[in-house]
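Good day; I would like, with your permission, to put a structural problem before you. What I wish to show you is a protein chain and, alongside it, a tokenised description of its three-dimensional fold. I would ask you to consider whether the tokens describe a fold that such a sequence might reasonably adopt. You will find the record immediately after this paragraph:
***
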Amino acid sequence: MLNSALKYLHLSPASDLPALEGLRQFKAVVVVDTDVHETMMWDVSRWLIDSGCLYALVWGKDCEQWREAIDDAAQEAVHYEDVPEAQRVFITAHEDEELEEAFWFARHRAIHPAHDLNLTLILHIADVPRREELEAAYHDA
């Protein structure tokens, strides 16, 4: 996926969730740099799934809890029924890795078996945005 488009979105813990129009069938790298209330974690997870995220990679604070929340949101979206592989959402947590390793995995290994995910969203949840730094690290991975 070296030629995929990249978008960056910063959310603070108090942010409202914007509409993610035109992002059907995309990959999200969720970079969590701050503590987030559990209700926001659930809201963001549902919002990602409802927006068309088919592969989510989580790195940072509480990333295993984030992975579980996104997985639960994906299951909730299909009423906890089995889904065909084409509709399956893949979620990974990268808690014991450097961010650069998670970005490398996102670029080179995070592949959906049924869809070309040509858009990657870096969802940065933090008090202060770091767009240039994170985009550069992603491209260097």
In short: The beta strands are 5-11, 26-32, 53-60, 90-93, 119-125. Residues 63-77 form the longest helix (15 residues). The first strand starts at residue 5 and ends at 11.
